[in-house]
């Protein structure tokens, strides 16, 4: 069976087409487009007209690609930007009318569950772990081990939300940093309680920003690993911290000139670095691994 998975993220729309053969699907086609659906007014719970149009055009192209690949089944999931927007349902209807694609707007809990399935498929979960997925609209945390998902929660502290609300200086001022961290601390109280109880020793970063961290670390080490071709990547913790601090203290232009950062992530990577460092510190974790498998691979796993 041939399956198409569409993941409508706040920043990026992903399309994955796979042949389901046993438990190890063969990826036939994979692409992502920086649609920036949450641009401008995500904190006002609104998809602005230009973003609405970009999203629609992207899905028209995805539909054409899916038709060319003669897919048997499509599952399209929308996350934070669509579920929180007052005109999110209008977007879902417009897509259905224009392309015939039915979009399922999933809850934060469902999103966390699918991220867990994706990360599990990568083989990254080898012990009691805290999984973290930094999206544009929300951040998901999953406490799990090799056997089970123990606890999960989605928080509305995604990089696009925090950027639009707090990112007002270049480089990011101490005042803006403190405002972001104070907000994050207020939101994540129950996460810190659960980590205090279970004491996970490793953080698994799910794709996205963590792929950028891996790209920057491997370039620093002159390894130049093709991150897109691997399932997991264990970080040297000190190298990660060095890169994260460099990102937090850099100017917009300095980040633009850093090889390994895609344009969409030039500013959001600062927010991702701040949140990740804060969680590592508060949860007393000093081991970090990347899983390149995330929500879309979880959706694929759920279909097989």
- Succession of helices and strands: EEEHEHHEHEEEHHHEHEHHHEH
CATH architecture annotation name of the largest domain:
2-Layer Sandwich
Q: What is the 3D form?
A: globular
Total strand segments: 11
Tally of domains: 2
Q: What level of helicity do the residues show? A: 40-55%
Fourth CATH level, the homologous superfamily of the largest domain = Exopolyphosphatase. Domain 2
Poorly predicted ranges (pLDDT <50, ≥5 residues)?
none
**What does the average pLDDT come to?**
95
Q: How much of the sequence is in beta strands?
A: 15-25%
User: How would you describe the oligomerization state of the chains in this entry?
Assistant: single chain
Indicate the CATH class of the largest domain. Alpha Beta
What strand line-up does the widest sheet have? 8-7-6-9-11-10
Give the C-alpha Rg: 18 Å
What is the CATH fold-level name of the largest domain?
Nucleotidyltransferase, domain 5
State the major sheet: 6 strands, mixed
Helix count equals: 12
Structural class assignment:
alpha/beta
In angstroms, what separates the terminal alpha carbons? 9 Å
């Amino acid at each position: 069976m041939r399956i198409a998975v569409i993941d409508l993220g706040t920043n990026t729309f992903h399309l994955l087409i796979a042949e389901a053969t046993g438990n190890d699907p063969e990826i036939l086609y994979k692409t992502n487009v920086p649609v920036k659906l949450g641009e401008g007014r995500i904190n006002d719970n609104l998809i602005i007209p230009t973003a609405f149009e970009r999203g629609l055009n992207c899905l028209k192209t995805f539909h054409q690609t899916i038709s060319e690949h003669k897919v048997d089944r499509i599952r399209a999931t929308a996350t934070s930007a669509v579920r929180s927007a007052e005109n999110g349902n209008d977007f879902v209807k417009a897509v259905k009318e224009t392309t015939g694609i039915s979009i399922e707007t999933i809850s934060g809990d469902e999103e966390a569950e699918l991220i867990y399935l994706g990360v599990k498929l990568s083989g990254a979960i080898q012990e009691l772990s805290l999984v973290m997925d930094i999206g544009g609209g929300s951040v998901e945390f999953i406490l799990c081990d090799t056997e089970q998902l123990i606890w999960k929660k989605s928080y509305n502290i995604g990089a696009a939300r925090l950027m639009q609300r707090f990112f007002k200086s270049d480089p990011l001022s101490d005042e803006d940093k403190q405002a972001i961290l104070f907000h994050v601390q207020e939101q994540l109280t129950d996460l810190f309680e659960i980590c205090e109880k279970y004491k996970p020793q490793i953080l698994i970063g799910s794709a996205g920003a963590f792929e950028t961290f891996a790209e920057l670390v491997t370039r620093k080490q002159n390894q130049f690993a093709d991150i897109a071709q691997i399932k997991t990547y264990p970080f040297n913790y000190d190298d990660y911290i060095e890169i994260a601090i460099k990102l937090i203290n850099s100017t917009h232009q300095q980040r633009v000139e850093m090889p390994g950062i895609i344009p969409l992530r030039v500013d959001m990577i600062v927010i991702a670095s701040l949140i990740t460092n804060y969680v590592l510190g508060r949860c007393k974790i000093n081991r970090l691994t990347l899983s390149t498998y995330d929500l879309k691979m979880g959706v694929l796993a759920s279909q097989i």
